[in-house]
Amino acid sequence: MATLASAVLTASTAHAGGFVTNTNQNAAFGRNLSQEAIIDIVGAYANPAGIGLLEPGWHLSLNNQSAFQTRTIESWFIDRQRGPFLNGFVNGQANTSATKTYKGKATAPVIPSFDLAYVADRWSLAAHFGVVGGGGKCEFSDGLGSFESKVALLPSVMNTLSGQQAVAGYAMNTYMRGKQYYFGGQINATYNILDNLSIALGVRGVYATTNYYGYVSDISAVMADGSQVPVASAMTPMVTQLATAVPELAPVMAQVAGVAGDVRLNCDQTGFGVTPIIGIDWKINDHWNVAAKYEFKTRMRLKNKSGESASGSALAQLDEFADGKKVPADIPALLTLGVQYSPIEAVRINAGGHVFFDKQATQYGHREKQLDGQGWEITAGAEYDVCDWATISAGWQITNYGLGKDSRYITDMSFVTNSNSIGLGARFHITKRVALDVSYFKTLYHHYDKHHDDYNNVSQNFGTLLGRVAENVAGVAAGIGIEDVAAGIDPNSDPRLAVINDLGTRMEGLTSVQTPGHDRMTRTNDVIGIGLVFDF
Predict the structure, then answer these.
(1) Which of 190, 337, 386, 413 sits between 20 and 30 A of 522, alpha carbons compared?
(2) Residue span of the structural domain in which 94 resides
(3) The model's pTM
(4) Within a domain: residue 415?
(5) How many domains are contained in the chain?
(6) What are the DSSP calls for 370-396, one per residue?
(7) pLDDT for position 13
(8) Is 226 helix (H, G, I), strand (E, B) or coil?
């Protein structure tokens, strides 16, 4: 049941860049997705060394972006047409198919950022503030398949253990929500070694704040007559029957009923990390400019403050969210390379690339080791000064996350898929010293199909539970057998042992159940940006 805790990890609205890193830090990004070699105040984040090649004086950029995203997972297991999901009631509504579609909505109407720079003769100083990771909240009002599948298998477990077909389905209430913000403030110092060659050193402080909230409650068995009965109550006849035949089994069977207890989570996480940054920019001539930047890995440990969590046996499964625990959540190192070509003064053509060193960024449970390779991006963009007061631009970006096939790194609880992004917009020069940026970009995500031999480990999890029950049943049997032999009674003729043997046979059948499944995942993403640029 504790998958609830992991399910709300879908909080991040990371809308461009790597798993954790947001590379779109201003409205100008939306109209030209290739900023690696731009020479502009908005390059304080993307190309800090280029700041030294601006006109002397002060430069300021103020921005806001609004991101709107959906995440959709189509899930089924055991049988796509007649699987267990078909027999469920979630939040009071009956499932209409064995293939379920789960949809999460992520909104971030306010994603602010600003850049400030002072350019002198050789030395320049620049500052940037923005949301460098996360940036909003995501909620799944009807949960996810990774949790519901565990509840969906309960009717089969209960019917098998009781030897009857009294349970026709299941019911549950669930809700999941997550919020995630990584605020980054950085300072860069740039030095012009030559008139056309500059280097930059910088440091970014990253403050992370998240909240994960969710619950799964009122798990019930739907009986053959349509009534909904709490699982523990539905199991009472079976437990009573077994307790009457073999009193020693009563506490053992209570373990199975206990798996359906309510789970609630309300966990805040905070953490701080430091990112050293180096960069270089070489303006070869009036036509060509090349630049590079390297951001070192940010060591991040998030400290939990949990107001609510599961109780009893489920608490150990919520270990990641235990109160006071520090959870590793590194931001990976990032290398960017870019080039800008101006065939004529009014036209600028950009191209670039990013490499995210995701496999070296430590995550909880070392999830990074499950990646097939590093993440990477290729970008391109172009700008055209159509007149003295207007510049139009467009850009493109391809993103690959190094997932491989049927990746264990992603689940319906936390996933990204490879994508293409396109953007367009304009800069309007209101005066000689004030300009307005407007932009819109959309990300077109690929579908990601993930096949499970054991859907979200549901069979393994129940197998573990039943294994513990089987050990206790075996202990009861051994105790009875030894006692009966000592009393001179043939254990093979004891009806209690016959009950235990029958129960053991049914449990063996459960542990051999095959639970293949499938998730088809995709996302949508739309971002609108607006910004003001001042030169003074």
Answers:
(1) 337
(2) 3-204+276-298+328-453+516-535
(3) 0.86
(4) yes
(5) 1
(6) G-SS-EEEEEEEEEEEEETTEEEEEEE
(7) 47
(8) coil
